[in-house]
Specification:
The structure is a homodimer. Chain A is α+β, with helices and mostly antiparallel strands. The first copy, chain A, has 14 helices and 24 strands.
Chain lengths: 638, 638
């Protein structure tokens, strides 16, 4: 199956290379080691290659983002175009395209990548500095406004792109550009040099990753420096920029959601290299606050339009949710690092949740339309766009999807960890040898998974199967016989044995429809429930439910649910058919407030249909809601 | 009672002088004609004189707002301080103080006013231009950025202040400054001159009022010009600035709430002078959209932080309500104009609602602390401030309170109109003679009002009594005998007769506790109700309800209410004691989402107490909510 000259075994294109990190429990498995063979992710990756990356490349050109590099290199005479941080979109696109090259040397993509890298490289200054906004007349302004001007943010994305390209292709040219710039930066910032931190975190994780590639400690030290010096008012001391308090003293997750989570990613990376427990403690505290008080049921983050920021605890409006696509992507990235660091399944749960819902909703099924903002309820005005003036989200979701195969497995000294489920064929390096795992499943539509093990000469080792937190009941069998030990949701089940060629592990996760409520202080969700099945959050969309405004539907507390797989709908989805009623709101016509006795509404029994949230807004516009009204049954008089 | 040398009869200090307006049904009654003798407004006006105006004066000085005028006059050498529109705060303060001078020649206030007016006057250019930001090096930038720089907005407030001062004192000096500036403006803008409209409407109503004072048609014409040219993209064409569509074609109330409503005020004023029915039709359309789809139950307007703007229909979050104090003040102003223009009681209802709730909450009981933003639910972090960098709200609520007596009555050819209720003694000019009305009531705590009529030689005329929309049942009697005709809520009841000295009209409005629901598409209010009694919206505040978090309280659908007047609490309020229960939320500790079957909560019967919304946040911080959970009873299976 894996022919000779297989490229992917050499490259080791991982997203976070914790292989040598002394304080990381898990080691990643390269993207190219996992061949997706499923009907969920594989088609998405195909669309990414065929549609997303080429159209984004055209947009980088059309919007002047590539011209900005040519301008900086003196090749064209033109004004700088767009926002001062537009370089970062180019870098994120290169990162996404590089991940693709790790498993698919698509010549069209390769050609685009090479030409973009050449433009980037040509724009670099002799001293290593590289930012197309701060050239010519603005050269003197370099590093003068770290709070607002995103130079370090752009540098971080440059570094991440260069590492991805190097890991995917083995080439060094772009990596050399990044290293040269990073050396320039370490020459500028640090103890005894310029004191500063970035207004928009991002470079921290990039520098740690560059340390992992180069083993140059200066990069790790500078990443730590940027985290250690946060909270001293260097970028204004605001809560929005998470500069109000030293990182280790943070109690509540606050501020700009993407900045906050990128910072946490960097801190997690620094922890994995240094073992600084004060960082891990702060990270765990922030994670608990976020997941218990500030995260949408979709894994979306950041409820406020103002400052694209986290709100107060339980401040999670649906219609005015901000839930930036980038923040959901960041949520995947942070939880992946926490998972690597600890091996705790709760991080895998949040990673999976954000991936399948909050992040995936950010891109249309066509692969070329995007949400920046992801409401959980809408009247039909909110539609995906082909691009944004501030276009951080499109290439961010692209790099996430391109790297999805890299999130499926990890290894530890004990063995192989299975985090995500989808049909795939993976060849995983373990203790210098290889284990081949072949997953067969219809996940996320079915909770039945079969993993066939080919130990390839390895003797005893463990396979850690993730039992998702959403599963009520899971049964794990080996070659048809239930294994010892009760699989516990939100934990990994360790199966340790001398594996034999063709051993089949089956996992059966009960995938019923979960009817969820949220904390009663989440004001908009009072007397409402959300439907979830497996990792997928559902919503009701108008187009599936003619006859009644979907905002007027109510779920019956004793509804039975019928699930139905529709291969031709929305790329293939399982629908949930529900029993409930529709309220006749005619008493409210032309009225906003009425006395309670004057607004009795008739209910008409009806059935309605829910679709996965990620798939909404791909058809004609109309009302949508994740949280569906239901009579409040969760109360008991004492 | 009204001694010799009574000052107030000469001044005629009205807020909107529609006396000569050909298309105004009602004519206003001067502020000084109405002597408040009640326990609600009179103490507030007293606090305004003793605390609010002096402390605001000190803040105008402390923050450099007065120095900006001295700087412009060349008296001090200093940088311009604060925002470029800070002059407007000074003008609004002068307007507020002038209204006070109309009925109370407090020497301390008079001295302050005179000194401020002198500073303003000294800062005026020889050509009439007056704005302390655009002086010296910025002189060349005058009128170059109408969208952002608020020159016309500041000019409007200058004009309104000058008119108020002239009407209150009879003096001309300040009015001359305003006229000179207004002449300068009419020289700059208009057909064949500069084409432009203000980014922030305000000058429109000011110019119409100046036309009413001076009878110079150029002012009216320019006001109309600014309205006619709106929607042509002169200030960018944005929805936020209501420049996306010509005024007469607006269907939905959108954009920055204060700008939108100030614009409507100006359009209503132009209508009253010109009879342009296309304006009135647009105004009525916008009013219907606003009151049926976009107004908080408190009369607050503008639900979005972003752009301080109206949201979509039914987008009325409570915790993240913006509901700027200025917008509620503007709501009073607009409805007052609509009421004058039409005599329709529905406008008086909204005016009263905004006045007693949305606007009044903007100032603390101490008279020196302010809300800019007025949420309808809070966890205790939102507190009134002594001032704001952008300090539009404090002097705006000050000028509203100072002018409250002017909103009580109007006249028409037919007679006298009674809009608001509170104990007062009013001498009202009618057809060249005077009617004295003496109101005695405990309104808003009681719905019983007695009006004693002293016709002072007048023969037959009508008295129009407002029967508020909130009253379920009202009984009106004359000298103890019920009058003919059923008083209809949200209408005026006309009593026409030959009045005799000492005739007593009694109005008994049933003032029960109304339990209100909102349109089911207002997401946060699902399964919640608001309590209202008479014109007052209530809320539950933590400090009155120890033992349970007020966000965990539920109102019983069959609750009886006990009302209790507490003279020593919050300046004297009627409390509403409710029956209900408190939910034990311990199952939710550390959880954000749970399956519906895992989160059953115990309810413990409890009673709790609500206070008027305007009085919240005057004691120790804690949770508050206007919308109280209640099991959904308003549903009936068909």
């Amino acid at each position: 199956m894996f022919g000779k000259g297989v490229f992917w075994l050499k490259a080791r294109c991982v997203v976070v290379d914790s292989s040598q990190s002394p304080y990381s429990r898990l080691k990643p498995v390269p993207i190219e080691s996992v061949k997706l063979k499923d009907d969920f992710w594989a088609p998405r990756v195909k669309t990414l290659v065929k549609v997303t990356l080429p159209t984004q490349y055209e947009l980088l050109e059309e919007t002047g983002r590539l011209d900005n590099f040519r301008r900086a290199a003196g090749k064209v005479r033109t004004d700088f175009k767009g926002f001062f941080f537009n370089d970062s979109d180019v870098y994120k696109w290169v990162e996404a395209a590089s991940y693709v090259l790790a498993f698919n040397r698509d010549s069209r993509i390769e050609k685009m990548v090479n030409s973009v890298i050449e433009e980037i490289s040509d724009a670099q200054d002799d001293d290593g500095y590289l930012n197309t906004y701060f050239v010519f007349e603005r050269k003197a302004e370099r590093w003068t406004n770290l709070r607002d001007m995103h130079e370090l943010y752009c540098a971080g994305h440059l570094i991440q792109a260069a590492i991805a390209h190097h890991r995917a292709t083995g080439e060094r040219m772009f990596l050399d550009v990044a290293v040269k710039f990073a050396r320039h930066i370490t020459g500028v910032f640090g103890p005894g040099k310029m004191l500063g931190v970035p207004g928009h975190p991002e470079i921290e994780m990039a520098l740690v990753e560059l340390y992992r590639v180069t083993h140059l400690e200066a990069f790790l030290n500078l990443a730590r420096f940027f985290i250690d010096n946060r909270g001293c008012g260097l970028v204004g001391g605001s809560v929005e920029l998470i500069d109000h308090r030293p990182f280790r003293e943070l109690e509540e997750i606050v501020g700009h959601a993407v900045r906050s989570i990128y910072l946490n990613c960097g801190a997690a990376d620094v922890y994995m290299e240094t073992g600084d427990e004060t960082l891990l403690r702060a990270l765990k505290r922030l994670w608990v606050n976020m997941t218990r008080c500030k995260m949408y049921v979709t894994g979306g983050l950041g409820s406020r339009y103002v400052g694209e920021a986290f709100g107060e605890n339980y401040e999670l409006p649906n219609r005015r949710a901000y839930a930036e696509t980038c923040a959901a992507v960041a949520n995947v990235m942070w939880n992946w690092r926490m998972l690597l660091a600890t091996g705790d399944a709760e991080y895998a749960d949040v990673m999976e949740l954000s991936l399948y819902n909050g992040a995936l909703a950010g891109i249309g099924l066509d692969g070329k339309s995007y949400f920046y903002i992801n409401p959980l309820a809408d009247r039909g005005r909110h539609r995906r766009q082909r691009w944004f003036e501030c276009a951080c989200c499109p290439p961010n979701i692209a790099r996430l999807i391109a790297s999805v195969p890299g999130y499926f497995y990890s290894t530890s000294r004990e063995g192989v960890w299975v985090h995500l489920y989808a049909s795939n064929d993976a060849l995983i390096e373990l203790n210098g040898r290889h284990v081949r795992l072949v997953q067969e499943t219809n996940y996320p539509w079915s909770g039945h998974v079969e993993v066939t093990v080919y130990p390839e000469g390895l003797s005893e080792f463990s396979i850690f199967l993730r039992i998702p937190g959403w599963s009520r009941d899971a049964v794990v069998a080996l070659n048809g016989k239930p294994v010892n030990g009760k699989p516990e949701p939100a934990h990994y089940l360790e199966l340790r044995r001398r594996w034999e060629e063709g051993d089949v592990i089956s996992v059966d996760m009960e995938m019923g429809v979960d009817v969820l409520k949220s904390h009663p202080h989440v004001l908009e969700n009072r007397c409402r429930v959300a439907l979830k099945r497996g990792p997928l959050v559902y919503c009701v969309e108008q187009t599936d439910n003619p006859g009644h405004d979907v905002w007027d539907l109510m779920l019956s507390p004793d509804s039975s649910f019928k699930v139905e797989y529709k291969p031709d709908l929305l790329g293939g989805v399982v629908l949930i058919h529900c029993g409930g009623s529709a309220a006749d709101t005619s008493v409210w016509t032309g009225r906003l407030y009425l006395r309670v006795e004057d607004c009795v509404m008739n209910l008409k029994p009806t059935r309605f249909t829910a679709i996965p949230y990620y798939a909404w807004a791909n058809r004609e516009p109309g009302p949508m809601t994740v949280w569906i009204p239901m009579l409040d049954t969760g109360l008991r008089n004492r």
